[in-house]
Amino acid sequence: MNPNPGFMGNNRMSPLPAKRPARGSIWSMYKRMFLHVRAQWLLMATAFFCIIAVSLLEFAIPRLTQLTIDDIIPNQRYGSLIWIALGVLGTALLLGLFNYLSSLLMASVGQRAVYDIRGELYRHIQRMDIGFFDRNRTGDLMSRVTNDVNMLQQLVSSGMMSIVTDWFTFIAVAAYMLWINWQLTLIVLATFPLMLITTQFFGKRMRAAFKKVQETVAEVSNHLQDTLSSIRLIKSFSNEDFEAERFALRSESNMKANLHAVKTRAVFEPFIDLLLFTGLAAVLLFGARFTMDGSMTIGTIVAFMAYLRLLQNPIRRFSRTINTIQQSAAAYERIVDILGTEPQVADAPDAIELTHAEGRVAFDNVSFAYHNDVPVLTNFDFEIAPGKITAIVGSSGAGKSTITHLMTRFYDPQEGTVSLDGISLKRLKLASLRSHLGIVSQDIVLLNGTIRENIVYGKHGASDEEVEAAARAASAHDFIMSFPQGYDSQIGERGVKLSGGQKQRISIARAILKNPAIIILDEATSSLDTESEKSIQDALAHLLEGRTCLVIAHRLSTIQQADTIYVLDKGVILESGTHAELIAGQGKYKQLYELQFPQKEAAAPVAELEPPKKQFTR
User: Fold this and answer.
1) Is 338 in contact with 125 (CB distance < 8 Å)?
2) What count of other Cβ atoms lies within 10 Å of the Cβ of residue 588?
3) Alpha carbon distance 380, 116 (integer Å)
4) Each residue of 474-505: pLDDT tens digit?
5) Are 369 and 375 in contact, with CB atoms under 8 Å apart?
6) Contact by Cβ (8 Å): 66, 302
7) Of 513, 406, 516, which is closest to residue 453 (Cα–Cα)?
8) Is the dihedral of CA 80, 81, 86, 92 positive or negative?
9) Structural contact between residues 451 and 487, judged by C-beta atoms closer than 8 angstroms
10) Per-residue 3-state assignment (H helix, E strand, C coil) for 494-549
């Protein structure tokens, strides 16, 4: 997955590999669900009572059948037939009622568990560091939060109730059958160890097969996310057919994975049925002999056959439910893979709150690499003075954006210290650190919603007056009011209904509303035309007034009024000074300037970042 494009560079790897958690078992899956629903113990107790009632009522109809055959029919008790019929109908009604209640209650408990697990997973993903998102694609994470959790929902909503009911019924019926005729019951139960072995054998294979299904679903989601978010690029190159073929390949992989899972299940279920019919054949063979010998009545053998059906139904249903269980177990493994991964950049146990920032940022002997064998910064020393404009220029790959990544603590350096006002960033709480930082970049990140919602994202709960003041300071109010709905106008996904300059001014308004102590401008105007750039420069002048500012730029016209300019190349500072000093130095900076402005005098002053007279104070 690509990280938020607003302030990321071209490097896409985390400094350290992610820790892989241990696989989750079925029992751990149920344990986690129980932890989520333990507060609903009253609902669970009521559901369990209904399950016990269903299991006990299952005994009634076979018992009434035996009574009819062995007593009522031989003794011609015509008057008792109506009571037998009423007993059967009453039992059926009670079974329906208790089944309804148990299904409803278990579904309610199960849905709460799934709701909590999905929320836990989403919150955990939100806590992860940027390196995590470098390693994981968006579509895969979406699949885990949606498809994988939905697999658990199937299990909790229907599978859990079926498992609890069936196991209780199985134990109760087996005990009763042993009391009726222990010899026949032991003959039937002799087939069950083989069923357990078979279930274990096929269960492992089905779990692996369904995990492959979930992985291929994630690949389909990845492709959809990539192509739908890049639809303009696809259409501009007329690559619709090419992308359709790529999608077909991923969809074919998903189809084959599903067919393999179905094939495994298709072999398992008939094998279980064969073992069940083997038990039935044994009961018919030995039961008939016992009846002919006079040791069993006809009613008893008929009732025993009915109890055998009750005993086998849980096994038959479980052989079907195992499909859902293994799907859920495979999905659960993918979920705990995420939940078991801890962020590499997180608050220290003794982290302190940053309540005020002067804005002095220092890099002390910092070494950092996205790949362990490809250093970006080595023994790097650098300082940003408070209340001043500091600029960094250099070619692509020089390490400019890496400096902003370390300042915002998206990553931690492998060696050295990055500090703010003399305090190491690792000693500061992340939320408080970032609350003092404002970032305006070339690649603007806007949410699908209204203009107001995007501006107020910088300060939740801001009043309409504050939003408008920020928009005016960003030179955005006039174009916003030109829309029919003004601040309530929808901007589309990633601001597709706005021009580049309009999107940039909204992002500046958002930063102004946040009112940070430190501003980072990461190529904020490099993709704009001259007219738009002039409007943005006016807006930026409001934003920078009285604040510490770091400017990353290719266009040297945007930084000539900076207090200090650093020239960076391959992680090394080649030279530093004011614009005039660097021009006089005849170094790398002058070469870059002459390439961009071959017809200008090198020392010509530019005042594009000069603050306006009207101030937007902090």
Assistant:
1) yes
2) 17
3) 45
4) 888 888 899 888 989 888 777 778 887 788 88
5) yes
6) yes
7) 513
8) positive
9) yes
10) HHCCCCHHHHHHHHHHHHHHHCCCEEEEECCCCCCCHHHHHHHHHHHHHHHCCCEE
Backbone angles phi, psi at 581, to 5 degrees: -65, -40
- What the block records as the tokens of 530 is 């001259």
Residue ranges of the chain with per-residue pLDDT less than 50: 1-24, 601-618
| 364 and 298, same domain (yes or no) | no
Instruction: Examine residue 549 and state whether it is found in any structural domain, yes or no.
Output: no
One domain for residues 235 and 329 = yes
State the Cα–Cα distance between residues 340 and 333, nearest whole angstrom.
Answer: 10
The CATH number of residue 599's host domain is 3.40.50.300
Instruction: Cite the DSSP H helix spans in 136-239.
Output: 138-143, 149-154, 160-180, 182-189, 192-229, 231-236
Q: Identify residue 363 by its one-letter amino acid code.
A: F
CA-closest candidate to residue 596, choices 550, 541, 558: 558
pLDDT at 140: 83
Same domain? For 187 and 335 the reply is yes
Q: Kindly state whether residues 151 and 106 are assigned to the same domain.
A: yes
Look-up of token digits 């174009």: 479
pLDDT at 606: 41
235 vs 118: CA distance, rounded Å: 35
Residues 225 and 258 in one domain: yes
The C-alpha angle with vertex 281 and arms to 279 and 285, in degrees rounded to 5, equals 120
Tens digit of pLDDT for each residue in 173-202?
788 778 877 777 787 777 777 877 877 787
Residue 525 is predicted with a pLDDT of 61
Nearest to 409 by CA among 397, 417, 400: 417
Q: Give Cα separations from 142 to 145, 209, 210, 234, 507 (angstroms).
A: 5, 21, 18, 22, 26
Query: How many Cα atoms within 13 Å fall on the side-chain side of residue 262?
Result: 6
Q: What's the CA gap between 297 and 551, in Å, rounded?
A: 95
CB atoms within 10 A of CB 350: 6
Sign for the CA dihedral angle at 58, 62, 65, 70 comes to negative
Continuous segment of H or E residues that includes residue 550: strand 548-552
DSSP state of 564: E
Strand order in the sheet with 361-371: 374-384, 361-371, 415-420, 423-424
Give phi and psi for 564, each to the nearest 5.
Answer: -140, 135
Give Cβ neighbours of residue 157 (< 8 Å, ≥ 6 apart): 106, 107, 110, 111, 114
CB under 8 Å to 29, separation ≥6 — which residues? 152, 328, 329, 332
Q: Give the CATH number of the domain where residue 150 resides.
A: 1.20.1560.10
Determine the Cα–Cα distance for residues 600 and 191; give it in Å rounded to an integer.
94
How far CA 492 is from CA of 454, 455, 495, 502, 503, in Å, comes to 11, 14, 5, 13, 11
Residues 240 and 299 in one domain: yes
How many Cα neighbours within 13 Å face the side chain of 6?
19
Domain that holds residue 603: 346-436+564-613
294 and 374 together in one domain? no
- Report residue 547 CA to chain centroid gap: 36
